[in-house]
Amino acid sequence: MKIGFSSLALFMRPLKEIFKIANEDGFEIVELLCEGPYWSRYVLENQKEINLDEIREIAISYNIEIFLHAPTIDLNPASMNRGIREETQKQTIETLKLADILSAKAITTHPGIVHRKEKRIRDLAVGYAIETLQPCQKYAEEIGVILSIENMPKRFSYLAHSPKEHEKIVKAVGSSATIDWGHANTYENPNEFLNIPNIIYYHLNDNLNIKDQHLPLGEGNADFSNYFLKKVKYGIIELNNYENVLKSKNFLIKQLGV
């Protein structure tokens, strides 16, 4: 398994510093969360000042692979509001463009959320999510970057909160799948998510099976046995505290017997 972490844990740090820290601590992947100072549109518009070419070369020199997480705050591919859907699509495509410049392997995005607890509205939302993300997949194929859709915690309002719905959306869009193992742990049988086709990578975090908590690995009851870990080719530790990222990395190394 190649182990990486989300830049969420070092949020607001300069990109060069994030990659330097990743290299010093032996990580092989960094997933850049494209929010705040790393918002895709801002980075694209200021790429000369940020010097994206240098960032890409620094990552290559450290032998670190780049993944991106598309913006999701205030966006929703499943929105009942067409303008929100169109803006979500636009920002997802911008993230794909950024991934292309950085020679990133893949980007992850969320499938969306519905704000009314009615099945007919939710079914409509699933259709909108697919419709919004299909052109993103087409563009991803054109530039050779992988588009991946993430599963969500088990709540009615979240799309892809079950293996069946996650697979339905992934297949309809034609994308790959990102499995957030903490999100999966809120479902009654997390292992069912492992059967979804075209899984590209995993977000690794823990919880107590009741709600999404993003605990350090080993502090909840998610399965991090060898049975699961052997299925993970690329694992991104997704926590908001870097000390807990390092703690979780050590936990993984111990579990893997490396």
Describe this structure in words.
The protein has 258 residues and is an alpha/beta fold. It is built from 10 helices and 8 strands. Strands 1-2-3-4-5-6-7-8 form an 8-stranded parallel beta barrel, surrounded by 5 helices. Strand 5, helix 7 (163-173) and strand 6 (176-180) form a beta-alpha-beta unit. The radius of gyration is 17 Å and the shape is globular.
Class of secondary structure makeup: alpha/beta
Order of helices and strands: EHEHHHEHEHEHEHEHEH
Count of runs of 4 or more consecutive helical residues: 10
Amount of helix: 40-55%
Strands across the major sheet, in which order? 1-2-3-4-5-6-7-8
| C-alpha-based Rg, rounded | 17 Å
Low-confidence residue ranges: none
Mean pLDDT equals: 97
Oligomer: single chain
Q: What share of the residues does DSSP label as strand, in percent? A: 15-25%
Distance between the termini: 10 Å
- The number of strands is 8
Compact overview of the structure:
This protein has 258 residues and is an alpha/beta fold. It is built from ten helices and eight strands. The chain has helices spanning 15-24, 40-45, 47-50, 52-61, 82-102, 119-143, 163-173, 181-184, 226-229, 242-256; strands spanning 2-6, 29-33, 65-69, 106-109, 146-150, 176-180, 199-204, 234-237.
Helix-strand layout with pairing:
Elements: E1 2-6, H1 15-24, E2 29-33, H2 40-45, H3 47-50, H4 52-61, E3 65-69, H5 82-102, E4 106-109, H6 119-143, E5 146-150, H7 163-173, E6 176-180, H8 181-184, E7 199-204, H9 226-229, E8 234-237, H10 242-256
Parallel strand pairs: 1-2, 1-8, 2-3, 3-4, 4-5, 5-6, 6-7, 7-8
